[in-house]
Amino acid sequence: MAIFSQAGSRRSWLKGAASWLVAGFVAWGAAGCASLSGTDPLPSWADGPARQSIIDFVNDVTNEASPNYVPPAQRIATFDNDGTLWVEQPMYTQFAFMIDQVKAAAPRNPQWQDNPVYKALAANDLKGALAQGEKPLLDLLVQANSGMSVEDYDKTVRQWFATARHPTLKRPYTEAVYQPQLELLSYLRSKGFKNFIVSGGTMEAMRPWTEAVYGIPPERVVGSSQGIVYDGTSLMRQPKLHFVDDGPGKPVGIYMHIGQQPILAFGNSDGDLQMLQYTTTGPGRRLGLLVHHDDAEREFAYDRQSPFGKLDKALDEAPKRNWVVVSMKKDWKQIFPGKP
Amino acid sequence: MAIFSQAGSRRSWLKGAASWLVAGFVAWGAAGCASLSGTDPLPSWADGPARQSIIDFVNDVTNEASPNYVPPAQRIATFDNDGTLWVEQPMYTQFAFMIDQVKAAAPRNPQWQDNPVYKALAANDLKGALAQGEKPLLDLLVQANSGMSVEDYDKTVRQWFATARHPTLKRPYTEAVYQPQLELLSYLRSKGFKNFIVSGGTMEAMRPWTEAVYGIPPERVVGSSQGIVYDGTSLMRQPKLHFVDDGPGKPVGIYMHIGQQPILAFGNSDGDLQMLQYTTTGPGRRLGLLVHHDDAEREFAYDRQSPFGKLDKALDEAPKRNWVVVSMKKDWKQIFPGKP
């Protein structure tokens, strides 16, 4: 109930009583509507401008009588993953996985013992590893995550996700996803949208579970990738980056992979800036959305200074471009599945 | 029928007889459905081993009682385009389009007047252009097809296809497609398959029309691509190749784009060799198919020596790997739509 988020604000006894009455009517009204047309498609979204902007947009572009009508084949929606569909703090899950791969590969790579990045990672000192610069860290991650067939790598990904737990939330990473976004994906799908993930993370670390968790099949997952070669028998992972699907790479990834401009894009960081620019430019109605992580109590609070998921330029650009900033604190009644 | 998977286990005579009775009812019911629900799904395919191999395969992998059952999410079918879904003689349509772009760009590029490849193309001497080597020709094509936004390029593609005609068939290129393959795509779709194009041609030259002609939406078209950069406003085409989706590039393109191994692949040339190898390797039932162009009267006859669509190694490998060689002459009753 939205009224609980008002706790702590000044309210008279009367206002409090009135809000309970209103809440009762809203609940009754919602139940009434639900009994006619089915259930509320976005129960974890609080009433407010963010939720309303989504519903207005969807109603408009799916209404054949509207000048903004979009046929189903062109209802493309793209979602960033880290920080938009699931948790990205205290670090990208992708990194947590790849760092574990570095540790697992260390015995086969004695030369790493002199590598300051490796030494920092081995001591669980991510800050120290990052302090060496982004490139040496990426190089090490890419090396440790290459040299095997894609099938063997896939097994490793699945095993890791089956046992790894988020360090503070103490739940599987695939349950550290946002309940309101699961509802939004489902709502869009029910309205004929094609949902895609467009993530800076690698495709291989997402595809094994996105269909079960998000209803997004492997072929609709766009992401960064390492080089792959076919050796006549197997597809082998190469120790080099092939494509970085982040920042200005996201519109390119969308074009290469989807081949159509989205009409809705949802991100949360400056890595999504160009995806939102691209999506919200051009004729017809378009919707750009940003998750704002402002809920230290239920999730994490960060924006302009974060090493992961920094939201700075995109936050400044949002009002100028009419992007909707979704407050985790105010707009989401529930953050994670299964725990109201 | 679950009972069929018990074959080999110990069962009484009575149980066996009962299962045959049930099977009989199922068969009778299916026949009844066919007479109600319609028509032969592959009317342009002649009765014979090629047609039968397709129907047997589809029946098997969609039968929940079969040990070879494949859930719909994994029913991935990949089709080459040139020579498999449409005509590739006397040259790839892709080339015909790109050469027209060279001619259109020539006034802006006076330096080409000294380029032997350009001179040959300007004189409609493709053989002469190819005689200079593949790379100089590709370089010129890539240059002429870059320097504009993807939207402007898309308009050029659409305009070209709206007016261009196949030189000998005298019909639009989008009608120089194979009727039996349109039926196969539709049949597979009706059985829960996801059809993809995996072509050596560029994605941009296919995506504008594949949904209307093949029922394959843009995001299911995998192909070669030029470099693209996002300049903050537009996606701009760069004068360089980004990815060559041919030969050993096809399994890589499949992995990058689809993220699952296909269970059916259809090609017609050595450029499809590795796609068929990749598709037909591994557990479960798999189907590899090759169009053999042996019908000089109704289409073209070529294989081991052709400059476009050379079928040599793959033809030798077909019997060893149980790939089905589809004779255009014997297996296809009708070649093109609208003309029996």
Polypeptide structure, described:
The structure is a homodimer of 340-residue chains. Chain A has 340 residues and is α/β, with parallel strands linked by helices. Helix content of chain A is 42%, strand content 14%. A 7-stranded mixed sheet of chain A has the order 4-3-2-1-5-6-7, sandwiched between helices. In chain A, helix 7 (150-163) crosses helix 9 (203-214) and helix 10 (249-257) crosses helix 11 (273-279). The A-B interface holds A 73, 150, 194, 196, 203, 207, 211, 217-221, 225, 228-230, 232-233, 235, 242, 248-252, 255-260, 274, 277-278, 281 and B 73, 150, 194, 196, 203, 207, 211, 217-221, 225, 228-230, 232-233, 235, 242, 248-252, 255-260, 274, 277-278, 281.
Query: Mean pLDDT of chain A, as a whole number?
Result: 89
How would you spell out the order of helices and strands of chain A?
HHEHHHHHHEHEEHEHEHEH
Computed over alpha carbons, the radius of gyration of chain A is 22 Å
What spatial form of chain A do the alpha-carbon principal axes imply?
globular
Most extensive interface: pair and counts? A-B, 35 and 35 residues
How far apart are the first and last residues' alpha carbons of chain A, in Å? 10 Å
The spatial strand order of the largest sheet of chain A comes to: 4-3-2-1-5-6-7
Largest sheet of chain A: 7 strands, mixed
